[in-house]
Amino acid sequence: MDPLNSAIERLVEKARRQYSYSDMAGATETLREALSIDPANSFLHSYLAIGLIGMKRLVAAQYEARAGLEHDPESPFAHYALGQVLCAKMRPKEALAHFHQSLELDPEPDNGACHLALARAYSMLSLRDKAGNALERALELDPEDPDTLAAMARWHLEGGDRRRARQYLREALQVEPQHQQSLVLMGQVLLAEGETDEAYDHAIWALQQDSSDEQALYLLSSVKARRNPLFGLWFRANSWLVSGGNSRTILILVVGFLLFQLTSQVLDDTGHGQWSSLVHYGWLAIVLYSWVGPAWFQRRVNEELKTVSLKPGY
Hints:
- The chain is mostly helical.
- It has helices at residues 3-20, 24-37, 42-54, 58-71, 76-88, 92-105, 112-124, 128-141, 146-158, 162-175, 180-192, 196-209, 214-227, 229-243, 245-269, 273-305.
- It has 16 helices and no strands.
- The protein is globular, with a radius of gyration of 23 Å.
C-alpha cells in the first residue's frame, strides 16, 4: 500500500470518529491535515464541507464543496456534499438537483443518506408527501439508522402524530442512546404531553453533548417558560442570542444603535431632552448587557448541566 494513501486513510478514519463525537472543529483540522498531503482529493474537500456545515461556517463549506466537485465532477459524494451546503443555506431547489445527480452517478444508488437528504429538501419546500416517500426509502435501506428514525419522527410530529413520533424516537435511542437529534425531539414530545421533568432531562442530556445546540437550548427555554413564564422569556431570548453567535449580536447592536440614534434625535428636535437622555442610558445598558449577558447566560446553562446525568442503560 502507498504510505501516502495509508496516512490519508488514517486521518479520514480519525475525522470520522471525531464527527461521530460531534467534534466538528477537531475533524475539520484533521481533514485539513489530510488535504496538506493531497490538496486535489475530491473526497477530502467534500468531507470537510460537511464538518464546516456543522460549525455554521457556510461560506467556507460552500467553497470546499465546490472544490470537491471541481476536482471530480462525477463524484456522487461531491454532489451530495454540495447539496447539503445548499440546504443549509436555505436553497433547497438547487440542493435537490445535486441530490438527484448523486443518486444517478452512484453505481450502487441504494444510498440511505442521500434519500434522507432528499427528504429534508422536500420538507423545506413543503412537499410533505415526497418527503415522506424519501424517508420511507431511506428507512428501507437502513432500518436502524438513528438519523433516519429521528427524521421520520419529526415528519410524524409535523403531521400531529406524537404517538408514532415517540415510537420512532424510542427506536433511535435504543440504537444510539446519545443521539443528539432524537434526545431533543423526544424532549419536545414529552413537553407537549406535559411531562416537564422528563423533557428537562432530555434537554440537559443533549446540551451536555453540545452546549451550543440551538434546538436543545430552545427546548430548555421552553421547559423554563412552562415552569416560570417570566424567567423562561429571559432564557428563551438569550438562547436565541447565543445560538446565533457573534454575527447575530453584532447585527442587533448595529441596528439598535441606528434606532436609538434616530429616536434620540427625534426627541431632541421635539423638545424632549430628558427623554433623549433616558434613551442614551437605555442604549448603554444594552451595550453593557451584550458584553456580560452571554457569559452570564452560559454560566446558568453550565449550572443546569451539572444537575442531570444520563441514566445507565438508558
